[in-house]
Write a structure and sequence with these properties.
The complex is a heterodimer of chains A (430) and B (195). Chain A is built from 22 helices and 4 strands. With 430 residues, chain A is mainly alpha-helical. Chain A has a 4-stranded mixed beta sheet with strand order 1-2-4-3, sandwiched between helices. In chain A, β3 and β4 form a beta hairpin. The longest helix of chain A has 17 residues. Chain A is elongated, with a radius of gyration of 23 Å. The N terminus of chain A is likely disordered. Chain B has 195 residues and is of the alpha+beta class. Chain B is 26% helix and 37% strand. Chain B contains 3 helices and 11 strands. In chain B, strands 1-4-5-6-10-9-8-7 form an 8-stranded antiparallel beta sheet, sandwiched between helices. Chain B has a 3-stranded antiparallel beta sheet with strand order 2-3-11. In chain B, β2 and β3 form a beta hairpin. The radius of gyration of chain B is 19 Å and the shape is globular. The N and C termini of chain B lie far apart (61 Å). Classes of the chains: A mainly alpha (430), B alpha+beta (195). At the A-B interface, α9 and α22 of A face α2, β7 and β8 of B.
Chain lengths: 430, 195
């Protein structure tokens, strides 16, 4: 399965322009996301896939214009690339990672269309719950946006820049030229190494696989710079903040530098995704220079936060499971910078410290949980953690009160029976 | 000359094929003590030991009846600092067992390990106290999906044994396979005795 996915991906997918970390491979998926469809768009539906017209139309998105491209002949190299992209797209539709929330999908499609110009009708967008910074757009118009990207973009302007960047790869057909380069012979040995790497298991195979994939099939620095400028131009033309692009790249560089994983910190100086998706200083500077003389635009920060707010808790939990506390802390700092969602932000700061167990972490965790419960959006689990700390310290009455509050706030808690038993033990010990 | 060369090539190819073959040991029905664990369980039927084909960390064994895509049984004795999955790169972060974990953190350790193994959005449910080989532990159910979208169900039992963590976990597709073996697995968990 993974070998198949590796083979398909190697040739079909335009890998991320912005991959910020070692990332797991594209997985399989579930069903179609809700996007506005027209008769024209059905022509672009991948062969063998469920027709998009079976899905309800989203309410937030604009009417989809007709596709700008016609499916190439199947006996052409471009047709072959489309076919493989189709198969990857079908896997994405069935993936266990697919986020099907209609409002989020409609919102992202709307943003993508704002920066896609006449390619809007080509886009079929899939949100994948994967805690890594990544987005891609395949030659057949199949676009993926990963939750790790949505968690890391500060505002809609930054998201628009990245989506515009991916559309830039698509419009310039970078993956087609990449495939033709590979077919020239230079990449034959590398294809075998990719397939071998793809046969790995779990996160280990994922890391080897994507590292190899990126080292061979990543876009060139020239492709990346070109896509940056296209993304910039389209985002600015749509009225977005011209500084969004370089701010986003700078944030990612800063986050990389505080990673707990030495491999991630070193990734600009060793073989990695960054090497072939170069997030180099010249790219940042080029965007900065371009933005210097531009008139101001909108960040649409509030609108963006409102769209991703319902997912913060689950996306942060997934990010925390990567066990890269430095990176998650950087994400939390940015999320909390405007004084919003502080109950969630403080709770996850507490979670970092609880899990890390370094010098002084216990005290810091306690402080963050204590701060979290002063905000109305604090997850119920903050009370449970404080109750656990109180029980450990022998403050049984306080522990009982906190654990009881936890159960009141989370009546369907999966650990209810266990916590109730704990409350009973603490009550007996008083 | 040509015949000799063909014979040589055939021998080399045969040797390469043989080298690629892996023997999957059969675990007989009856009492079974998985190497590295501090408990024994009673198996109602023979299982295949996949540990050699899917390398696991020290103290972790994986058995299956019909292949790991259809059912997998973990039996583990994890030392402090140990993990439920094998990592090649020592810098790759992964959940590790610590002796100061609370019971809820032991559950979190298992669930986060599953997430690291590429199970999608694993969640625990119905946590309750239960003994494992006489030691107080936590029993819980697991709901998750694999990356192709197939729903998986599971059940696990964890308990400390001295400094180590003992674990029993069964995972299978929710449709048919989990339910078909749930009772048998439940009896197996209950059969655990100190080794």
């Amino acid at each position: 399965m993974r070998v198949l996915a590796a083979s398909l991906l190697a040739l079909a997918i335009a890998t991320s322009a912005a991959a910020q970390d070692v990332t797991p491979p594209l997985a399989a998926s579930q069903e179609i996301v809700e996007q506005p469809e027209t008769a024209e768009s059905i022509a672009a539906t991948p062969e063998g896939a469920t027709p998009a017209t079976e899905q309800p139309a989203a309410t937030l998105a604009p009417v989809r214009p007709p596709p700008s491209r016609v499916r190439p002949a199947t006996d052409s190299d471009e047709g072959g690339l489309w076919g493989m992209s189709d198969r990857a797209e079908i896997e994405a539709r069935n993936s266990g990672q697919l986020e099907r929330d209609p409002a989020l999908n409609a919102y992202l499609f709307d943003v993508a269309c704002r920066v896609a110009d006449d390619a809007c009708g080509d886009i079929r967008l899939y949100v994948m719950n994967r805690p890594y910074f990544n987005a891609s757009m395949a030659p057949n118009g199949y676009m993926e946006v990963w939750s790790g990207l949505l968690l890391r973009a500060d505002d809609e302007a930054q998201l628009a820049f990245v989506l515009g960047h991916e559309v830039g790869h698509y419009r310039r057909q970078h993956s087609l030229s990449m495939m033709r380069t590979i077919r020239s012979g230079a990449g034959v040995a590398a294809v075998f190494s990719i397939i071998a790497a793809g046969a790995g298991v779990g996160i280990i195979g994922d890391i080897v696989y994507l590292g190899t994939l990126a080292s061979v099939f990543g876009f060139s620095r020239e492709n990346e710079s070109e896509a940056d400028m296209i993304g910039y131009d389209h985002a600015v033309a749509a009225g977005y903040d011209p500084h969004a692009g370089h701010k986003l790249w700078n944030n990612l560089v800063a986050e990389t530098q505080v990673s707990d994983n030495p491999d991630v910190r070193r990734q600009e100086t060793r073989a990695s995704i960054f090497r072939t998706h170069p997030l180099s200083s010249d790219r940042v500077e080029a965007l900065q220079e371009r933005a210097a003389d531009a008139s101001s635009g909108e960040t649409q920060r509030e609108r963006y936060r409102a769209a991703i707010r319902p997912f913060l808790d689950s996306w942060l939990r997934a990010d925390l499971r990567r066990r890269d506390y430095g990176q998650t802390a950087a994400v939390l700092d940015r999320l909390g910078a405007h004084g919003e969602d502080l109950g969630v932000v403080e709770y996850y700061r507490g979670e970092i410290n609880r899990l890390r167990r370094g010098e002084g972490d216990r005290e810091r965790a306690f402080q963050h949980y204590t701060t979290a419960i002063t905000y109305p959006d604090a997850p119920a689990a903050a009370w449970r953690e404080l109750g656990t700390y109180a029980a450990r310290d022998g403050r049984n009455a306080e522990a009982i009160a906190l654990l009881t509050t936890y159960l009141e706030r989370a009546p369907d808690a999966s650990d209810r029976a266990f916590v109730e038993a704990r409350i009973g033990q603490l009550g007996g010990g008083q | 000359m040509n015949t000799t060369r063909r014979g040589l090539l055939a021998a080399v190819a045969g040797g390469a094929l043989a080298a690629g073959c892996v023997t999957i040991p059969l675990v007989r029905a009856g009492s079974y003590h998985a190497k590295g664990t501090a408990f024994s369980v009673t198996l109602a039927r023979p299982w295949s030991d996949m540990t050699t084909t899917i390398p696991q960390p020290r103290g972790v064994r994986v058995l299956t009846l019909h292949g790991v895509q259809l059912n997998q049984l973990y039996l583990a004795g994890i030392a402090p600092g140990g993990s439920l999955m094998r990592v090649v790169d020592r810098d790759t972060p992964r959940p590790t067992y610590r002796t100061d974990m609370t019971e809820l953190e032991l559950v979190e350790f298992v669930i986060d390990s599953l997430a690291t193994m590429n199970f999608q959005d694993p969640e625990s449910a119905n946590l309750r106290p239960q003994t494992l080989a006489g030691a107080p532990g936590v029993r819980f159910e697991i709901n998750t999906r694999i990356d192709t979208g197939l729903n998986f169900s599971g059940t696990a039992l964890v308990a400390r044994a001295g400094e180590n963590l003992n674990l029993l976990m069964f995972l299978a597709p929710s449709e048919y396979y989990y339910g078909a073996f749930a009772q048998e697995v439940d009896a197996m968990f209950a059969s655990a005795t100190p080794a």
